[in-house]
Design brief:
This protein has 216 residues and is of the alpha/beta class. Helices cover 48% and strands 18% of the residues. The longest helix is centred in the middle third of the chain and has 14 residues, at 95-108. Bound molecules: cytidine-5'-monophosphate. Belongs to the OMP decarboxylase family. Type 1 subfamily.
């Protein structure tokens, strides 16, 4: 996946009005937007369809899908039918659950991102001990796209070494959670950034300063 300016906006706002107000200002800088539970639970899955159509962007849906294979497949089918280009799926549920999402994606010409390790402090308790195993599982399954934390660069580097240089790795945790944009891009292909942009007094200024900071 190509990502303009290497920045994926985490659109964790709670209404389409807020989403449009933000995107009217900053959509020229972006071509990939991540939509998760906050906006979809507030406004319905149509939010995915609407944002994609109105802003002509790729949508990564962050539903951190983590159910049995049959249920995962239904979630993936409905999400892709709504217009999502890609879906973030938890790896800890095991290969059969992940494979059901991959199968749905392949049938519809869409993509799956495998979540290895989350970026928040609590991820160290249960997820961290298995996150490298999840990355290995993804490689064995032939998965191309991964999510890994910008808040622990040593771990991100390790994930990159497992998945290889040709896999596509996106990384949340930049800004508000403490991750550094430029350092993260030593290992990741694109950054996922939410609050540092949508809570900034001037989102355009915030985005421009992040883009300036990552230009090599
Ligand atoms: O606001 P902030 O920039 O911290 O947003 C990060 C986004 O990435 C949120 O939507 C969060 O749910 C998501 N995320 C994360 N860590 C992961 C996977 C997704 O922070 N491992």
């Amino acid at each position: 996946m190509e990502v303009k300016n290497k920045i994926i906006l985490a659109l964790d706002v709670l209404s389409m009005d807020q989403a449009r107000e933000l995107l009217d200002e900053i959509s020229d800088y972006l071509d990939t937007i991540k939509i998760g539970y906050p906006l979809v639970l507030a406004e319905g899955l149509e939010a995915v369809t609407q944002v994609k159509e109105e802003y002509q962007c790729k949508i990564i849906t962050d539903f951190k899908v983590a159910d049995i294979p049959a249920t995962n497949q239904k979630i993936a089918n409905v999400t892709f039918q709504a217009g999502a280009d890609a879906l973030i799926v938890h790896g800890f549920v095991g290969p059969d659950s992940v494979a059901s999402c991959v199968e749905s994606a392949e049938k519809q010409g869409k993509e799956v991102f495998l979540l290895t390790e989350m970026s928040h402090p609590g991820a160290s308790q249960f997820l961290q001990p298995v996150s490298m195993d999840i990355a290995h599982m993804g490689v064995e399954m032939g998965i191309q796209n991964y999510v890994g934390p910008s808040t622990r660069l040593d771990r991100l580097e390790k994930i990159r070494s497992i998945i290889g240089k040709d896999s596509f790795l996106i990384s949340p945790g930049v800004g508000t959670q403490g991750g550094d944009p430029k350092d993260t891009l030593k290992f990741a292909d694109a950054l996922i950034i939410g609050r540092s942009i949508y809570l900034a007094p001037d989102p355009v200024e915030s985005l421009e300063s992040i883009i300036d900071s990552i230009e090599f």
